[in-house]
């Protein structure tokens, strides 16, 4: 009985695609979140399986199958907390509502549709946050010729950042810092600072989370030798507030981003100082002062790349446009307004991303009784995740994994897997970044052994007992392949064959233990 070669192929086009939100979904601890996804083109999903899972296909958040919810498949953490919203299932639009959000719900989710043997999925990211308590300031005693003052706050998620700042907004060095997990997954934080006699200014203890674009603050007024006068649990009493976007601002490498902020209540900012800075007040991205841009104050990384948008400055609405986005632009920015002695600021987060190259699969040789196959992809930001999955979506163990930085701040990644004779399934090499809600993938189909005798027009350099693998491009060759000798591969005694058909060429490689065809 003859068997026929197995196939590796790159997936070209499916019956449908699955898409989700193009940015992270915000949620607050104790609240609820809706995770939407849809089919393209529009079609009914009533007879499909629809599944949400976490890192593995078997870590089931919710499953809809055979026209109903399959609650028995859920992992315990989500029992009784999910609701399948299917009002628009007839046109392929569905959502999952998660109730009573917990810190552990934070992270990535996969929305998976399957109809027969055809399946597709989309990656979603849920960003959970909790705004903690107002910071409590207490005097701890004397230290190093000054008075040690501590600031504490609890019930935050994710881990918050606590800072001490002076009147000019400069970050002051703390004497100690500590972040501790609480029993339910939230965090508490504390920091202390030593106040000395020469201090004569206001200091602010600020705790913040960029996910909510909010912070909690308390101020300390210090004068002479007197003990510090503490203003506890108080947000600054100012003539205005500064607000920015309530979620991260997405941007692509090489593109541009707009960072908006505004005053509340509405008022003119024409005579104010408006400043964007990074971690410190002096790391200036852009400054507007005395009615004009102050380019000389910028740090070199932003020279020539920023543009102050002030069409609505008379009502306190301004923006900063950053051109030619770089990976190093990723992260937090502070938008700062000052009028006389009164100042306020808002924290913004820029999330930079780059969608890398399609993964390239190559055969590396023999290892541990199988064939080692590698997958490589480059030009990603931030660090991507490369996974091998089987047909059921389960993550397969890789033989090696590596992520390397490129010169311009992007990343390349590679992973390998060992394919053995008992393999009889599809495998997918997938590289993904949740920031763009997109991934790149290639598929491998593995089945069977070579026939004992191959027709001379089919990979005739393969011998009895050799396994056959074929990586196929987007074309399909229904007719037999005609192979001929084409030289050597890798400088070793491995025959390179060129297989031709009416649809186009593929390359076949014959090795001592195997015969490999690369599309």
Automatic annotation (TrEMBL):
Gene Ontology CC: one annotated term: external side of plasma membrane
Localization (cell): Membrane
InterPro entries in the cross-refs: BTN3A2-like_Ig-C, Ig-like_dom, Ig-like_dom_sf, Ig-like_fold, Ig_sub, Ig_sub2, Ig_V-set, IgSF_BTN/MOG
Keywords of this entry: Disulfide bond, Immunoglobulin domain, Membrane, Transmembrane, Transmembrane helix
Pfam families: C2-set_3, V-set
This protein's record includes keyword Zinc: no
Protein name listed in UniProt: Ig-like domain-containing protein
Originating organism: Pelusios castaneus (West African mud turtle)
């Amino acid at each position: 009985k003859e068997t026929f070669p197995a196939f590796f192929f790159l997936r070209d086009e499916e019956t449908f695609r699955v898409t989700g939100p193009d940015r992270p979904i915000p949620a607050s601890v104790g609240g609820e979140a809706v995770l939407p996804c849809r089919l393209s083109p529009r079609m009914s999903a009533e007879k499909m399986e629809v599944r949400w899972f976490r890192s593995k296909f078997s870590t089931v958040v919710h499953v809809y199958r055979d026209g109903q919810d399959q609650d028995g498949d859920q992992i315990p953490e989500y029992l009784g907390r999910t609701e399948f919203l299917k009002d628009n299932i007839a046109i392929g639009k569905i959502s999952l509502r998660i109730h009573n959000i917990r810190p552990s719900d934070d992270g990535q989710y996969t929305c998976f549709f399957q109809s027969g043997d055809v399946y597709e999925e989309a990656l979603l990211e849920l960003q959970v946050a909790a705004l903690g308590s107002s910071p409590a300031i207490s005097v701890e005693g004397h230290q190093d010729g000054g008075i040690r003052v501590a600031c504490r706050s609890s019930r935050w998620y994710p881990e918050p950042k606590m800072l001490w700042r002076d009147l000019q907004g400069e970050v002051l060095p703390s004497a100690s810092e500590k972040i501790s997990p609480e029993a339910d997954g939230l965090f508490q934080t504390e920091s202390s600072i030593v106040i000395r006699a020469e201090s004569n200014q206001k200091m602010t203890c600020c705790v913040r989370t960029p996910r909510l674009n909010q912070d909690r603050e308390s101020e300390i007024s210090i004068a002479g030798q007197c003990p510090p006068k503490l203003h506890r649990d108080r947000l600054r009493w100012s003539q205005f507030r500064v607000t920015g976007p309530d979620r991260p601002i997405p941007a692509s490498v090489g593109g541009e981003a707009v960072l908006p902020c505004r005053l509340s209540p509405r008022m003119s900012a024409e005579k104010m100082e408006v400043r964007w800075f990074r971690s410190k007040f002096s790391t200036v991205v852009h400054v507007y002062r005395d009615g004009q841009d102050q380019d000389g104050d910028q740090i070199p990384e932003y020279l020539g790349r920023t543009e102050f948008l002030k069409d609505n400055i008379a009502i306190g609405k301004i923006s900063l446009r950053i051109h030619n986005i770089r990976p190093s632009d990723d992260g937090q920015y502070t938008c700062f307004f000052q009028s006389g002695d009164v100042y306020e600021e808002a924290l913004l987060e820029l999330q930079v991303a780059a969608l890398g190259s399609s993964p390239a699969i190559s055969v590396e040789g023999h290892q541990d009784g199988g064939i080692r196959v590698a997958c490589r992809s480059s030009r990603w930001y931030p660090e991507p995740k490369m996974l091998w999955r089987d047909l059921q979506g389960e993550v397969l163990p890789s033989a090696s994994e590596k992520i390397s930085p490129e010169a311009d701040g992007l990343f390349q990644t590679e992973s390998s897997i060992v394919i053995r004779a008992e393999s009889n399934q599809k495998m997918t090499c997938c590289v993904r970044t949740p920031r763009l809600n997109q991934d790149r993938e290639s598929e491998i189909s593995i089945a069977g052994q070579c026939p004992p005798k191959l027709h001379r027009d089919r990979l005739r350099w393969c011998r009895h007992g050799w396994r056959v693998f074929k990586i196929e491009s987007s074309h399909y060759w229904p007719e037999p392949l005609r192979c001929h000798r084409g030289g050597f591969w890798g400088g070793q005694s491995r025959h390179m064959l060129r297989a031709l058909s009416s649809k186009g060429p593929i390359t076949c490689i014959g090795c001592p233990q195997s015969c490999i065809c690369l599309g």
